[in-house]
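Protocol step 4 of 6: structure prediction from sequence.
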Amino acid sequence: MVELRDRISAIEWALRNQEEIDIGGQDTPVRHSLDHQFDRPDPELDAKPYPTPAQEKPNPFESASPVEDKHYDSIAAKFGLGILDEEDFTEYTVYDAFVTNLRICPVHLTDNGRYYYVEHRAFLANVPGVIVRSGIDKKGKCLGAAHIPFQGVNTFGIGDIENSPHTMIWEKMGCPGFWTHMKYEFVHEIPNGQRRTFNWLRTRNNIYDDQGDLVLVEQGREDLILAEYMGKGLLKWKKRGRLRIKAAEIFGDAWELVVLVTWASVTEVCGFSISKWRLG
């Protein structure tokens, strides 16, 4: 193998005499530069075979669409709660309307689903604190209402309180705990005449939001989520959040309105100082 100093001397001699010389030897390796990517490969070496399909690394961009989480995005999922099946739920987007009022629309605005308008008026005396109307404004027909007085029992009912208040059946609603507002309770009579107790449970308090996340469950069957509300928290502007309601024929035709009226009552109370406004 030719030493490096001998190569340098031979190169200098060739440059002075303008002649070509062979400075390599039989034992000189083919790859001898500092950057091997510019070296000529040894012709005696076999080319690396192409990998088989089993040896190829999968392309992440060609993989199937990611599997959606079974749970709705909520802290409730960490406790075994959350919506597991999406087919039996109707999903709505909750928008800010005038002042404290809310507009509830289907997720896809082109759907021919039901639209609701919620009036929050707990700050007014001698009027229902919550009114749920059909449509997208306060001109719609009254579908349900709730009384949230400063003191006393809170009640809610389904029907038109403006035109036929005598036909409405009022149910009690309240907060069973005095120091905590993580749970709200109401009773609803199902078509077979059985009276069942339901609870709105607060699963998370969003940052800078007066309306935390809520789930609705039946007392004694907390593993089955009947409705869930997800607030936008700090990111809200026009959208307040999303509301999902489970289709449950066993609870009667007015079940969706019961969920809406009770949910609207809980969110109305949450919008005020808890020290002054409390359910029950």
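Step 5 (inspection) to follow. Residues 37 and 160 are 82 Å apart (CA to CA).
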